[in-house]
Amino acid sequence: MTSWKSALWRRWTLACGTGEFLGIGIAGVSMFLYIQLVGEPDTRPAQFGQLLTALLAGAFEGFILATFQLRVFRECLPQLPRMVWIRYTMAVAMLGWLLGMIYPTFFASGPVQAGSVPEPPLLLILGGAAAMGLTLGALFGWFQWLAFRAYVPHTRIWILANALGWMVGMVLIFLFATMPDEQTPAVWILLSGFAGGLLGGLSVGAITGLFLLHILDQHHIQLDS
């Protein structure tokens, strides 16, 4: 790997890691504060309020991630329109949060009843996270590909890149999200969310960064000096 490729890959990986560290972390804080202020959403207004909070969290995460990614694209794909990339990334991040929060908000909330189904094993949770990451990652890549295709043709591989990257990233995010329990202090819950966001984002960046280099190679694009 040439020096400019190594530099670009590192910048892209760090951009995704930083974007998700802030995006997932602050989004997690907003969801945590909502639960602290409102309590468990056991009424329809509270449930829709939590869903709205999740949508706003997704919009924030998408905006932050897209902004950091554009700082790298400015050097290698300056023709990519800023607002188009931001809009598509925000849209798919909001959709991801919406799909991810529907079940826990409307079907898994409320007080725990005696004899209720115990929490599933960690491996099952992480397997579900991998499947979710693969699906939502492909959706994420497809949305961003819509922005790509008008300016850099033949980039459908970006869909696969995000599917693989988010599969790994979502496993890490869920792993850290499941570490706290009911006795865990609030500060450690929040730190766990930030850590999961950082490691998840770095893994997404590392994997998609390799595909980005392949796309640039195909079109003979090099880093602007």
General form: elongated
Mean pLDDT reading = 88
- The helix fraction, in percent, is over 70%
What is the SS-derived class? mainly alpha
The protein's oligomeric status is single chain
| Approximate strand percentage | under 5%
β-strand number = 0
Question: Low-confidence spans: pLDDT under 50, at least 5 residues?
Answer: none
Question: How many domains make up the coordinates?
Answer: 1
Distance between the first and last residues' Cα: 18 Å
Q: With helices defined by DSSP (H or I, 4 residues minimum), what is the helix count?
A: 6
In short:
The chain has six helices and no strands. With 225 residues, the protein is mainly alpha-helical.
Q: How would you describe the overall organization of this protein?
A:
It is a single chain. This protein is mainly α and 225 residues long. Helices cover 78% and strands 0% of the residues. Helix 1 (3-38) packs antiparallel against helix 2 (44-76) and helix 5 (157-178) runs antiparallel to helix 6 (186-218). The radius of gyration is 18 Å and the shape is elongated. The mean pLDDT is 88.
